[in-house]
Every structure is written in structure tokens, then in C-alpha cells.
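Researcher: Good morning. I'm working through a list of sequences from a screen, and I'd like to move beyond sequence-only analysis. For each chain I'm collecting a predicted structure so we can compare shapes side by side. This is the next one on the list. No need for commentary yet; just the structure.
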Amino acid sequence: MQTSNNETIHLSDIEIAQLKKLKHIKHIAKKLNIDEDDLEMYGKYKAKLPLNLINEEQIKNNNLVLVTALTPTPAGEGKTTVSIGLTEGLNKIGKQATVVLREPSLGPVFGIKGGAAGGGYSQVVPMEDINLHFTGDFNAIEKANNLLSALIDNNLQSKTNNLNLDPRTILWKRVIDMNDRSLRQITIGLGGTTNGIPREDGFNITPASEVMAILCMADNFDNLKERLGNIFIGFTFDKKPIFARDLKAQDAMAILLKDAIKPNLVQTLEENPAIIHGGPFANIAQGTNTIFATKMGLSLSNYVVTEAGFGADLGAEKFLNIKSAYAGLNPKCIVLVATVRALRHHGGSPKDEYNTPNLERIKNGFKNLEKHIENIRKFNIEPVVAINSFISDSQEEVDFIIKACAALGVQAVTSEGWAKGGEGTKSLATAVVDVIENKSSQYKPLYDWKSPVKEKIETIAKEVYGAVSVEYSKKAQLNLRRIDRLGFNDFAICMAKTQKSFSDNENLIGRPENFIVTVREIEIAAGAKFIIPILGKMMRMPGLPSAPASEGMHIDNTGKISGLS
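Model: Good morning. C-alpha cells for this chain:
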């Protein structure tokens, strides 16, 4: 529970959101100087924005702020809430700011974490729409992905245009936007010859689809089609690679994405613009919104606040080494979200003591935050630490964090956006502006995409995670030879790793040392131009917990939803 002026807020996130009288989206668009005729309305409070509003020259004049976090607890440390709150705070101190976020996935919404539209008085609205079907983007991505699956199996069945594809080599999976462990590994094509060719298959969750990654990495519609055509499917019986373009799939898939490619405009609780688009996870994908959305925000607003999933070793690393490097973005400040409870966790507190003050554990846990600060500076960017405030924080613990950060030359500021909205983040906003105006420098990625694959993997493992070395399983070594044979050595590295530790062992909390990272296998996302090393037992289809969040949700006969947070 978080607090405002020492009084606990008893309203739930959804209750706060439902009390807000929303402005018509045309009024929010006016703040960005968007003509009403340019809006593609989805009701009164949502609209899609045409790509012709992106202005490459204007982008260079505006300021990009990335919000990331220390290594999180399972509940997360509130990056989205801080991102929205910071945007409100920037507007409060006279800056024109827009928040640019990812779309929530239904898997976490009904699973463990609930919604992802912020919290308390730092939310984007309409909250229910954003957390549920929104404007149909995830549905379009799912359908495009599964159209390719259908075309693959149809080609196996075909007698005329058969590509001689070996079913045993097919890497492409179907997707669904739900946590459903029973779909991870399945057998399809049973029931006779008219039902297709029997083979093993499986489902990923929609945020893990390469189509999602492609949508987020494309920079124009022709590029989207080209990337869709470059999706690597498998090999023929005589070892020739097969791509989606060999099935003539790219145009049909792009048709399904013709509206999903456009960013979505909504509003914050304080009636500031919010652009929400794309939704890859950061532990198994790149964890950032679309290039279109970020560039749209930078074309229309002086300050853009965006976020990247999980800790800075995952989402921020990929934002900087993949998205920013490809799109030519220049983040000028990074906000590193920390919570007292997460530092207690990394200092050794068991889960039932996360809310119990303990200065010694804070001191021990600070090593995790310190490593993230070091990492951010390796990209030639200065961080600001946002201490996301909770009622269980002691002043002694907060003071220690502020002083310990100051000793590193970093400003740490308490963020009270959850409880107070923009009023609670004005100090954070001022600190961010100070970095941008007085300390900003040209960001640089950690590696060159053209470097050897192993060198790129080891750069991330050693520089970001702190590993002493990297080991490759026999399967991973075979995968490396395949990558070389296919000519994909100059792709970016998109690590699939636990979000619970710097290492590939989720039990190594804090700042682990002297550990070895093991690459179990390496997947190829040729359309996204990613190589995906998989560290440990990463699952691209999560399961539901024993008590899913869905059990606490209700809807009455008027359509009013409760329990969604």
C-alpha cells in the first residue's frame, strides 16, 4: 500500500480510473497540434495516429527519457507508474511531455501482475480498454502469426506448390495472448489425411511472437513487409532454408497489420497525451514499444518518457543496443526506478519481510542498484534514481539510498506519483531536466552489430551481467554454425534470461560475482534481425499461478468491471 500525506489511499486503481471524467480524445490531440481530421477514432477516448505525423527532423530537437529499474521482485517496482507520473510532473513544471508505453498482454492481466496501465494517480485511461482488447493490435499480430502457421501446414499438405519443407525442422510456432502452459508442446494434424500432416508444434504467448518484434522494429510499411518475408521457417529435405517470402505470405500478413502499425493515442489522469503501441516482453523479447510510437512522440512533443521491461539488464540493454542503435534514437537521461522493498529483497529479506524496515539489508541490497548505475553509464548516459514510494518505507532507509547514490554522483529522488500524480513527481521531473540540460551526452551502444556473434553475447554477459565467462551447450554450438551458414552474423543480440537476477540463475540475488552464463540454445528471428540466446530454462509460454488474478475480477449487469488492477 502506498501513501499520500501519511494517509493511506483506500481506492483501488480501477476505482480511481473510473472516477475520472475523460476528455474527448480530440482535445488531447490538440495538445500535440494534431488536427481532428488526422485522428482515426476508436470511440470517444482512443484514436490511432497516421504515420505521416512522424517528422524525422523534429525528432532531433526533442528529448527522450528512458525509464528502467533495478532487478525487480515478482510484483515489479512500478516503472509504468513512474513513467506516467514523471510525464505528469514534467507538464507540471512547464514542459510539454508525452508518455509512450507498451500495450499490456492479457497473459499477465489475468495471471500474476494484473494490468499494466500504471497505478494510483499515475494512470493512463480508459484503463479497462487499455488492459483488455484496446484497439485490436494484439489480435492482429496473433492473426498474422497464425496465418503464417496455416500457410506452412497447408504447404506441407499441398501436392502442387509443395516447397519440400522438412516438418522436423519447422521453427515457427502459433501464438495466443494468454498464459496456457498446456499449449507449450502439442501434436497437430491428427485424425486422418484430410486434417494435415501430423507433426509436433506449440504455442508462444503473443508478446513473444516474431511478428510482435517485427512490428516494433519496422520503420515504414515497406520495411514491415520485407521483415515479414524474411521470417525464417525451417529447411527443406535437401537442407535449403525456407522463409515466409517463399510462401508468398508477407503481403497477406501485412494486410492484417495495416491498422495495427499505427500508434494509439489515449490520455493520462491529468489529461496529458499518452501513446501506447506494441508489447513485447523484455525477458524473452526486446521489451520496448514500437519505433513508430517513440518517433511519433518525439515528433509531437518536447519531452518523451518511455519505459523498457523488467530490470535495466534486460529492457534497457535491449532498448539501447537494439532499438536505439537501429532507429538512431538518442536517449538523454535514464530514470532508474528503485524501491525500498526490492533493496530489502536483494539484501536477503525473505518475502514475508519485504515490508519490514531493515537498514542492514538495504545496505547489502544497494549493490544491485549500484551495478545498474554502472551499466547505464557504460552507454554514456547519466541516470537519475527514482525511489518509488511505499507506506512501508522508513525515512532512515530512504535517506541511506539518497546518500549512497550521491556518493556515486547520482541524484536520487523520492517519487510519489502513485499517491499524488504530477504533484508527487515534480522533484523527479526537475532532476531529469537538470541531467538533460547540464549533463547530457551522445549515447553509444555497447557493441557493433557487425561484430562476431560470440563477441556480442560475451559483451552483454560480462559488461552488463557481470559474468566471468560464457559457456555454450552442444545445441548452442550447432545453432552458432547454422547462424554462420545462413549469413545472420550481423544481427543484434536479444537475450532470453530470467528477470530475477543479473545471472542466469534466478536464485542469485543482489550483485552476484564469479558466475558463468550458459547459453542453452540460440533461436533466430531473421525478420526482426535478432539472434536470441536462451539462458537457462526460459519459457515463451507462461503458465497461470495457482490463484490467478482473474479469480478476483467481476463485472456487473451494467458492464462495470472491478478487480482489474
